[in-house]
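User: Hey, quick favor. My workstation is busy. Could you predict this chain's structure for me?
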Amino acid sequence: MDESVVLFIDRSAGSRTVPGALRDSGHCVVLHDDHFPVETPDHVWINEVGRRGWYVVTLDKRIYYSPISKSAVEQHKVGVFVLRVTSPSSAVLLETVNRAAGRISAFIRKTERPFFAKIYRDGSIKCWV
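Assistant: No problem, here it is.
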């Protein structure tokens, strides 16, 4: 894995299953709560994530639909991966992340930021247009 790539796991993606699977696959992972208070608005942490050059992994598709959050992603050139699973149990999240882990690095290498991408249960990753 490219050690300069950092995946920021927001609160919606949890603090165990998703980050653990990504770490196990060799990704550098940081957690929301290790850097921001719980009540930090999305656009605030997105600004800082962009400043640091990190990528976001989230379950929260509302970031895409929120004008202020979407603007922060675009302005600060953030890459956002949205896990698109219908039943986000720990087992399903683990399976999804394990299937997608190798594809995340490849996607990052070939895709210019800013972007929103969906990670599907089969591990495929597609840009969200």
